[in-house]
Amino acid sequence: MVQIFAVLIVVALILVAVSWVAANWIPIAAVIAVGLGTWGLALLIRHIRMMRYFASDEFLAHKTAIASFVAEHNELARYVDEIRGRGTFALGWSVSGAQAHLAAFQNTSRHKYRRDRNIASYQTPFVHNCSLQVVRNASTDPIKYVMKYFNIKATETDLANVEDLGDGIVRLEDAITNLWQREASITQSFNPPKFIVKHYADEFMKHVGVVLSPIMVPYPVYMFEYVSAGGNSSQRTTVTLDRETIDAMIWTMSEKIKFRKSVAGQRALMTSQLRTMIKERDNYTCRYCSISLVAEPHLLLEVDHIVPVSRGGLTAPDNLQTLCWRCNRTKSNKIIAG
Fold it and tell me: Which strands make up the sheet holding 221-227, listed edge to edge?
């Protein structure tokens, strides 16, 4: 009885609201029209201000003054595309659900009440479906469990693959960060009005001539997933192979391999620490063209193998050098062409 009374009250309130709107629709429509008109006028005024700013002598003069810096930014953006295209950003896989694509799964439950269920992921090699205990263990010892369940072995070959992955990740990270720093520097040098930065950031870069790269770092992500039989419970551990995680994996694999007495075992490990050491040794200066961070604050420096690993070169300090991105790009293109 109480529920029926409550429903009747709600219906009555709705009818009163509808009657009031019907009786006062002209004033309401007028208020809405005034609001929309004011908003449209504000947009029009802002657009006119934007066009005047981009056509101003001050903006055009500064655009000409930094044209060479913008051109180098755009060339670096193309270099980022090359790094992404040539790099290998995947490693290992899980065999759980490896043949799941061969079957079609359908839940045919016909219960009167059924809440949303958690569904296990079988269609990707980077998700390992496992017990709850494995999920929890992976959260406390991620390197061990990623290696164990995603087919990454403690061998010289896999170690080299992990180092290659790390090199690609670090180069792409550094290049994208460098692009962002250059874009911030370009914006700061113009010091545009706040409304330009807030509402027309992409338009600003387009008028300056800056090519914005859409590329982000494709970090490999591995998941350990537990889903209960009924789908009522689900837990997951996620491991992202970023710079820090890759360095930890390299050290772990090196300790397991135990091949220090071999010639290959005497090499250094290609970690972030080694890259920093080589740059410091070379005074943050390109060994080819001699340009340095002192002369060019936005310079992108990379660590390069003098004799490429593909041609038998080892990762050792005397086979590593600091190169600017231009020289390293030229050298890489010559090696590929050769």
Answer: 127-129, 221-227, 234-240
Q: How many other C-beta atoms are found inside a 10 Å radius of the C-beta of residue 41?
A: 10
DSSP H/E element including 11? helix 2-23
d(CA 134, CA 236): 10
Query: 242-279 burial by CB neighbour count: b if 16+ within 10 A, else e?
Result: bbebbbebbebbbeebeeeeeeeeebbbbbeebbeebb
Q: Tell me: the pLDDT tens digits for 316-338? A: 899 999 999 999 999 887 665 55
Q: Which residues pair with 322 in a beta bridge?
A: 303
Residues in a beta bridge with 304? 321
For a pLDDT cut of 70, what percent of the chain falls above it? 74
Closest among 239, 264, 258, 259 to 249, alpha carbons compared: 239
Strand partners, 222: 239
φ and ψ at residue 324, rounded to 5 degrees: -75, 160
Residue with tokens 């040794």: 281
CA distance 92 to 114: 37
**Contact call for residues 277 and 322 (beta carbons, < 8 A):** no
Domains and CATH numbers, the chain: 60-100+117-258 (no CATH), 261-338 (1.10.30)
- CB burial of 15-30 (b: ≥16 within 10 Å; e: otherwise) equals eeeeeeeeeeeeeeee
pTM for this predicted structure: 0.77
Which residue do the tokens 């600003």 mark? 204
Q: Is 12 helix (H, G, I), strand (E, B) or coil?
A: helix
Cα–Cα distances (Å) from 194 to 46, 54, 187, in that order, read 12, 14, 11
